[in-house]
Write a structure and sequence with these properties.
The protein is of the alpha/beta class and 224 residues long. Helices cover 43% and strands 13% of the residues. The chain has nine helices and eight strands. The N and C termini lie close together (11 Å).
Length: 224
């Protein structure tokens, strides 16, 4: 049974990395450039795909834990600063939309749904990616992880979107790929659907017991 009930939703919130876009290669590229600058060795794309999905600080922590066997806070801060400088300058070289995403966004636009990107990625690179991939017209707002003092899994960014666009939580739907999205929606009292193909820090998304999992967002259109 689908919980999408798209006809009853006025506002649809989307996570960015791992939900709308496959950004792993650009994150991998920026991390290795950062590590090279700090003379710290290199990591593989496969490793990066396991480490991303829970925010940049944790990504840097996981990288250092692997390379050094421990995490020195000052080195983590140095890597984080270097990474953000390199990544934010060029966040969309090889980042691509996942299959089905564009078709779903086009449907949402035709149905006059308010669609908002709610990501833990800082707002600057998030907006850059959306602009380069020519998705601006689909989104009423892009809420980055640095907009508020808290971010997902805190429900505040989700509740902010509902309030700002005059929707009840029942009229909203969250679409994500990680336990952060599931937990934020749960705490906001909002229904949440997750995609099976995203990033969840190497953990099976089923472990956090999401309400519904889809392999492609267009599956939701067939149900509505």
């Amino acid at each position: 049974m689908s919980i999408a009930r798209l006809s009853q939703r006025n506002v649809i919130l989307f996570d960015l990395d791992g939900t709308l876009v496959d950004s792993a290669f650009d994150l991998y590229r920026a991390m290795n450039l950062s590590l090279a600058r700090l003379q710290l060795g290199q990591v593989t794309e496969a490793q990066v795909r396991v480490w991303i999905g829970k925010g940049t600080a944790l990504f840097c922590q996981s990288t250092l834990q692997y390379l050094k066997g421990e995490v020195d806070p000052s080195l983590q801060q140095q890597l984080l600063d270097t990474f953000l400088e390199i990544y934010n300058a060029d966040p969309c070289v090889d980042t691509r939309l996942f299959p089905g995403v564009l078709a779903f966004l086009q449907w949402g636009q035709q149905q006059n749904k308010t669609m908002i990107c709610v990501t833990n990625k800082p707002e600057l690179p998030a907006r850059k990616i959306i602009e380069i991939l020519q998705l601006n017209e689909y989104f009423a707002d892009v809420v980055g992880g640095d907009r508020f003092e808290v971010r997902k899994p805190d429900p505040k960014p989700l509740l902010y979107c509902a309030e700002t666009f005059n929707a009840s939580v029942e009229q909203c739907l969250m679409v994500g790929d990680s336990s952060n999205d599931v937990e934020a929606a749960r705490r906001a009292g909002m229904d949440c659907i997750v995609v099976s193909y995203g990033y969840n820090h190497g953990e099976d998304i089923r472990n956090c017991q999401p309400q519904q999992i889809v392999d492609d967002l267009t599956e939701l259109l067939n149900e509505s």
